[in-house]
Amino acid sequence: MARRVMIKGNEAIAMGAIEAGCRYYFGYPITPQTDIPEYLSAAMPKVGGVFLQAESEVAAINMLLGAAATGVRAMTSSSSPGISLKQEGISYLAGSQIPGVIVNMSRSGPGLGGIHPSQGDYFQSTRGGGHGDYRTLVLAPSTAQENYDLTMLAFDLADKYRNPVMVLGDALIGQIKEPVELKSYRKKPKEKPWALTGAKGRHGQILKSLFLADGELTDHNWMLAKKYKSMEKEVRFETYRAEDAQLLLVAFGSVGRILRTSVDILRDKGKAVGLLRPITLFPFPNKAVRQAADKAKVLMVMEMSTGQMVEDVKLAAECACPVDFYGRPPGSIPTPDELAKEAMKIWRKRGLK
Amino acid sequence: MYFDTIIAGFGGQGVLLMGNVLAYAAMQAGKQVTYMPVYGVEMRGGTANCTVVISDRPVGSPIIHEPVSAVVMNRPSAEKFGPMVKKKGQVFVNASLVKAGQFETRAKRVSWVPTLELANEVGNSRLANMVMLGAVVGGSGVLTVEQLAEALTGALDPRYHKMIPANVQALEAGARFVSEQKAA
User: Fold this and answer.
1) Is A262–B60 a contact, with Cβ atoms under 8 angstroms apart?
2) Is A336's CB within 8 Å of B34's CB?
3) B80 membership: H or E segment, kind and range
């Protein structure tokens, strides 16, 4: 049996990265994710890896680009304002098709904002974030265990699609301490014939995002678009007591886990309420939401923002049923009771029985 | 089965370690558990607190606004968290630093634990936190002192393992104190 340990969400990310064979970390400290570099600064040298505290977030993401271009597994992590600084580099990773894992333990904004948990980086994460017509795969863990598991998955998906993958948590998911089962990573990493390894005995190759020849950039963008479309098979989500739900709540990450308890509270009162929790935010579980919209009478999205994922849920639901929303800006974390009350408001407003 | 608690005190009183040991013991007992340290802009000499939730079901929120219990190691913590505890809940007060009438609470049950005096009897005033933790499990029944004692190896840095026997004595002293209170 795998070893069970009591660790912080941030530590679970760091341990998952090392287990998945990541040996290169570049970062710059920022609350609430600094436990990741702190852990890796001690752990990386022990496994023969590199921990490098860069002079800035911009430097760190470009170091990641350089390292990953040689075919190694590399990671950076930061929190919202730092992730904004990395966007240029993420766009270059996407354009040059270089895999890399970027962790955002998000805090609140806009601007310097504060250190409270927030889900206000949903748009930035799922719409690319930097310039140009690109997407990053986005994984949204809700427990320390998922931090560990999904970080390992992030490296696999990054290599499989030669694309940046973002792990999007928040201050709550990073700071929580929970039991984690340390499963072993057993996959054989993919061969990377595209990697820049010195051209000994082969022709030189280049990784770039600049395409100036006639029609070249058009073709490149079409190829990328097809790739993003093909990511749909990676969709992951979890449902909880959703089978016969008349009111189906939809939430990701920290709100997704808090709502499990809200669902239990409402079920104890005899209300048929369930939960759908997207785990991949891009690709978004469109089909699952559409099927849920056919089965449930009402969908209700809850977010720690004033409304971002709700737009994707509405698009996916295709007006098959009403989509209601409850959101709150950063400041206090909603309790299961508070969210259950908000759900009951919609239950009554929509005349559910 | 469900239990939650906010453990609070001055930085340096060992409140985060209390939470860690409690959470670790809960994990070893096969429970679902979360530990959430205070999260805010804190400074040296300020207050520290953590929230531990133990349940048979997966824990949704690791942060609790109306806890079932609170463990208050100093007066500012008693003033802040005492009023938040549920009516049917329980407050464990460090009687060495907090006196009756210094804070408000709706909670029916308030346990006054002279942590420093009991810790000194064990032989070290720095064991006050473990005395209190023993009182918490003795008074709430959430886990046993034996389960806490077993958790010390995992929850403590190996550097401090030589201190485990003294810590166990402190846990026992706290649990014994509340059971004698109950009997009286």
Assistant:
1) yes
2) no
3) helix B75-81
Asked if A238 is an interface residue toward chain B (Cβ–Cβ < 8 A), one would say no
pLDDT at residue A253 greater than cutoff 60: yes
pLDDT digits (tens, 9 = 90+) for B14-63: 999 999 999 999 999 999 999 999 866 666 667 899 999 999 999 999 99
Residues A253, A224 within the same domain: no
With beta carbons under 8 A apart, name residues in chain A contacting B61.
257-258, 261, 333, 335-336
User: Cβ(A37)–Cβ(A49) under 8 Å?
Assistant: no
> Is there a contact between B27 and A257 if contact means CB atoms under 8 Å apart?
no
Q: What angle do CA A89, A95, A101 make, to 5 degrees?
A: 55
List, as ranges, residues 51-90 from B with C-beta within 8 Å of A: 57-66
What tens digit of pLDDT does each residue of A48-78 get? 999 999 999 999 999 999 999 999 999 999 9
Task: Indicate if A130 and A251 belong to the same structural domain.
Answer: no
Residue that finishes a domain, picked among A216, A233, A250: A233
CA–CA gap between residue B161 and residue A241 (Å, rounded): 45
According to the model, what pLDDT value does residue B43 have? Answer: 64
Q: What is the pLDDT of residue B40?
A: 64
* H-assigned helices in chain A: 9-19, 35-46, 57-68, 80-96, 122-126, 144-161, 171-175, 216-230, 253-268, 286-295, 309-317, 336-349
Distance set, CA B183 to CA A348, B28, B94, B161 (Å): 50, 30, 20, 34
User: Any chain B CB within 8 A of the CB of A310?
Assistant: no
A179 and A308 co-located in one domain? no
- A229 and A301 together in one domain: no
Put simply, whether A135 touches B (Cβ < 8 Å) is no
* Residues A227, A267 share a domain: no
Indicate the number of domains in chain A. 2
The last residue of one of the domains, among A203, A233, A263, is A233
Quote the ipTM score: 0.92
> Which chain B residue has its CA at the smallest distance from A240's CA?
B58
User: Between chains, do A6 and B60 touch, taking CB under 8 Å as contact?
Assistant: no
pTM for the structure as a whole: 0.95
Does A179 sit within 8 Å of B35, measured CB to CB?
Answer: no
Q: What's the CATH number where A214 sits?
A: 3.40.50.970
A156 shares a domain with A34: yes
Q: What is the mean pLDDT of residues A98-104?
A: 98
CB under 8 Å to A280, separation ≥6 — which residues?
Answer: A137, A138, A139, A140, A234, A235, A236, A237
Reported residue count of chain A is 353
Tell me the residue range of the domain where B8 lies. Answer: 2-183
Q: Is A178 on the interface with B (CB under 8 A)?
A: yes
Residues A204 and A295 in one domain: no
CATH code, domain with B23: 3.40.920.10
The whole domain housing A256 covers 238-349
pLDDT < 70: residue spans in chain B: 39-45
